[in-house]
Amino acid sequence: MVILRGENEQRKLSAYVAAAKDAVPTADEVRRFLRSTLPEHMVPASCWRLDQLPLLPSGKIDRKALSPGVGVPLEDGEELVLPRNEAEGKLADIWRELLGVEPVGIHQNFLNSGALLAGVADD
Question: Which band of pLDDT confidence, cut at 50, 70 and 90, is reported for residue 58?
């Protein structure tokens, strides 16, 4: 399930994946799969794991229950390496402020972190 979150230039796509704890894909795997069939602007910036998708009494997915704090963020598939010097620390602080993401590692891809959908490019 993919949902558009935010307003105006801060809009970004968030994917919610219902998966068992022993079969959880990485965020990179989800994005790679989606890129094989979707244009880049439709690939979600963030990916979250849920045990199951919330349902309405009618059996349809309850989209309102899929808020930003719901679920566990999927790992990017890379080991998190924190900033090693002052310059990297300042860049990480800028990313945190602009994208509202935590934590920020030195090997993270700025575009995959949400910049593409958070105002750097139109979706």
Answer: very high
76 vs 40: which has the higher pLDDT: 40
DSSP the chain: -EEEESSGGG-EEEEEEE--GGGPPPHHHHHHHHHTTS-GGGS-SEEEEESS--B-TTSSB-GGG--TTSSEEPP-SS------SHHHHHHHHHHHHHH--S---TT--TIIIIIIIIIIS--
pLDDT digits (tens, 9 = 90+) for 81-116: 788 999 989 988 888 887 776 677 777 766 655 543
Question: For all residues of the chain together, what is the average pLDDT?
Answer: 80
Q: Which CATH number fits domain 2-120: 3.30.300, 1.10.10, 1.10.3210, 2.60.120?
A: 3.30.300
